């Protein structure tokens, strides 16, 4: 099995960023490693977007 692709999302709280997070979090070959957001600085992704 190949290593997973490590992904970083900048601007994860905007409309496009949220959709990208949804797609990447469900992809079997992607490891979401970093998400940045001015609006939710210091918070964990899954506490802000529990549906992911």
Question: What is this entry, summarized?
Answer:
The protein is α+β, with helices and mostly antiparallel strands. The chain has helices at 15-25, 45-48, and strands spanning 5-10, 30-36. The protein has a two-stranded parallel ribbon with strand order 1-2.
Mean pLDDT: 90
Using the CA coordinates, give the radius of gyration. 11 Å
Number of helices: 2
Low-confidence stretches: none
Strand order of the largest sheet: 1-2
Helix content: 25-40%
Give the end-to-end Cα distance, rounded to a whole number of Å: 25 Å
Protein structure class: alpha+beta
Number of domains: 1
Largest sheet: 2 strands, parallel
Please indicate the percent range of residues in DSSP E strands (runs of 2 or more). 25-35%
Order of secondary-structure elements: EHEH
Number of strands: 2
Spatial shape: globular
